């Protein structure tokens, strides 16, 4: 079971650095060190995250599977359906966001160039549609491949999300102040309410 402990450490490293490197005080320290080259920080951040998550999945694929139950047609169907819906949700959450700038392929100083707060589309119903999409993708993947590695992937995400949301929203309040605080009071984080928020 040592290999699954290593897999868990991989997720801790990924989520830990993902949150740490996105913090405003850490970004300011990197800008002080990097100077004008800080415009490449976002791209380096994206490359690091991509390489690390690929390494985690490649490592998981090398493990001898420990099946939690036998695969069946129902799990396969539900898994595909949830993963597909989650992918659609994740893609739609990026609507209105300049993707090349978000990834960092368009160099910029994200400490100076603040985007406007997005509260329309899916963000009108939930604050973190990308996270909601990831939950569905990981849960669908677990139903489709019900082994221990898939469970570790899912549990790592579910354990991280409250922590990740807390620190992300702390940063957003620093950036947008009362505008985000008001939005946060009226719009739920992951699961939509039936009442709609009006600005």
Q: Summed up, what is this model?
A:
This protein has 199 residues and is an all-alpha fold.
Outline type: globular
Structural class: mainly alpha
Number of strands: 0
The level of helicity is: 55-70%
Task: State the CATH class.
Answer: Mainly Alpha
What is the CATH topology?
Four Helix Bundle (Hemerythrin (Met), subunit A)
Radius of gyration in whole Å, from Cα? 18 Å
Determine the number of helices (DSSP H or I, runs of at least 4 residues). Answer: 8
Could you give the distance between the termini? 51 Å
The ordered string of helix (H) and strand (E) elements is HHHHHHHH
Uncertain residue segments: none
Number of domains: 1
Let me know the largest β-sheet.
none
The CATH architecture can be named as: Up-down Bundle
> Could you tell me the strand content as a percent range?
under 5%
Provide the residue-averaged pLDDT: 93
Pfam family, one: PEMT
EC number: 2.1.1.100, 2.1.1.334
Membrane topology: Multi-pass membrane protein
Organism: Negadavirga shengliensis
Features:
199 residues, mainly alpha, Four Helix Bundle (Hemerythrin (Met), subunit A), globular, Phopholipid_MeTrfase, transmembrane, Methyltransferase family protein, EC 2.1.1.334
How would you describe the overall organization of this protein?
With 199 residues, this protein is mainly alpha-helical. The chain has a single domain (2-186), classed as Four Helix Bundle (Hemerythrin (Met), subunit A), CATH 1.20.120. It is 66% helix and 0% strand. It has eight helices and no strands. The chain has helices at 2-20, 24-34, 41-62, 73-93, 99-103, 129-144, 148-176, 178-186.
